[in-house]
Amino acid sequence: MKTINLPYGKGKLTIEIPEERLAGILLSKAHDYQAKMEEEELVKDALLHPVGTPRLKELVRGKDNIVMIASDHTRPVPSKVIMPAVLEEIKQGNPGAKVTVLIATGFHRPTTREELISKFGEETVDHPDIRFVVHESGKQEDMVSLGKLPSGGELLINKIAWEADLLISEGFIEPHFFAGFSGGRKSVLPGVSSRTTVLANHCSEFIDDPHARTGILEGNPIHRDMIYAAGKAKLAFIINVVLDEDKKVIEAFAGHYEKAHEKGCRFVDQLSGVDAVPSDIVISTNGGYPLDQNIYQSVKGMGAAEAPCRPGGVIIMAASCIDGHGGKELYDTFAKEKDKEKIMQRFLATDRNSTVPDQWESQILCRILLKYKVILVTQAPKDMVEEMQMDYADSVEDAIRMADEYLGRENSKITVIPDGVAVIVRNRN
Questions:
Q1: CA distance 164 to 168
Q2: Domain with CATH 3.90.226.30 in the chain
Q3: Is 108 a catalytic residue?
């Protein structure tokens, strides 16, 4: 038997798979990567040696209104590690500067005070010289128009970001299932953009584009819009980190929103790229908390399983989903229409400017469900999972038994992806 630990919620699921059934374990090399410094030192070193820009302390001189875009509660960005170093750089360059932290919720729900404290620490959240503002994409009165995106959608971003004397951002870089990689330019779009802009960028045409996939930037229409938005917003400086499976910083990149980000993406690509090991059953996760809080986010980990799973096979997804489905529109899409072909055709016929909330997640989930059976090992309610046209299982062991029954045999090979959002799975065929 092979014992494998799967991230699940804030803990682990331990599973055992017979050696003869195990086709392969697809792991990011980030999990074994030995960082050259401690977390704080890595961040400080990146700030000391920015890519494509002067140091932050130089950029802040004469700039009194500093706005820092920061990730929300759905992202494991270690803001407690990043913020002190950033604030020290700002203080060195302009001791009197006022700092606003604009929480990039994108299309997510607003971040709560408790979640802010968990991410930044109470001392930072309550600091008299730091203002925290949570972006809400649906508040059109908070937005300013910066013209049109290359795709034709309207570019509307939070006024606070636009009115900054200097706009900077923190984030982290990992594979992303349609933007290629997270981090960098994503802090602006979708991070602090209007829902109108996000919907236009996440349109069915772009989601269907073969370049809008994990680990791909070149030719990716979604990325192209995002880069343009960051430039128009005058994003002047980024600090992005790379994390291991324990959410510890193993590398950091600072500087120009495109040049520093691309350098970070190359690093992640080297660590995360793995060759697909085809099998009939693929087990994946969303890397545990915070990305496995809901079914909406869990679609990302399912996407990693597409490459190694043979057509007609079974994807077993282990995700706690303590917040349930995470998107009413996503839930309704599958609960109200059982014909998945009809769902997909409706998406593909939807014009860019008519995109509805969560359509992109629904479209990707639909793409997966049309090709594979999906069994969700989760704390989400069984009825909810089944209404969304997936099978429910209490444990991975039960899910494997269900997969065997579905496939009609008990010896199907199994590929395991312990952290589906941390890998770029490539078919070399």
A1: 9
A2: 2-26+276-426
A3: yes
Q: Order of strands, edge to edge, in the sheet holding 130-134? A: 130-134, 98-104, 65-71, 166-172, 235-243, 249-255
Which option is the CATH number for 2-26+276-426: 3.40.190.10, 3.90.226.30, 3.40.50.880, 3.30.450.20? 3.90.226.30
Token couple for 260: 């520093």
**Active-site residue 176, yes or no?**
yes
Give the integer Cα–Cα distance in Å for 155 and 143.
10
Strands (E), 105-234: 130-134, 143-148, 154-158, 166-172, 175-176, 180-181
Rounded to whole angstroms, the Cα distance separating 223 from 188 reads 12
- Of 73, 108, 223, 261, the active-site residue reads 108
Q: Is-contact 374 282, C-beta < 8 A?
A: no
Q: Where in the chain is the domain with CATH 3.40.50.11440?
A: 32-271
Q: What is the tens place of the pLDDT at every residue in 198-230?
A: 999 999 999 999 999 999 999 999 999 999 999
Mean pLDDT by 10 residues, the chain (429 residues): 95 96 94 92 98 98 97 88 96 96 91 93 91 95 97 96 98 93 97 95 95 95 98 98 90 98 97 95 94 93 95 97 93 96 96 89 97 98 98 97 97 96 82
Number of H helices, E strands in the chain: 16, 20
Contact 159, 405 (CB under 8 A): no
CA distance 267 to 241: 11
Q: Which residues pair with 15 in a beta bridge?
A: 4
Whole-number pLDDT of residue 358: 85
Angle ∠(309,314,319) on CA atoms, nearest 5: 100
Question: How many residues does the structure list for the chain?
Answer: 429
Range list of H helices, 141-279 = 159-162, 195-201, 204-208, 221-232, 259-272
CATH 3.20.20.110 given to domain 32-271? no
Strand partners, 373: 314
Q: What is the CA radius of gyration of the chain?
A: 21
Can you tell me whether residue 24 is helix, strand or coil? strand
Query: Could you say which of 176, 202, 223, 325 is catalytic?
Result: 176
Asked if 325 contacts 418 with a C-beta cutoff of 8 angstroms, the reply is no
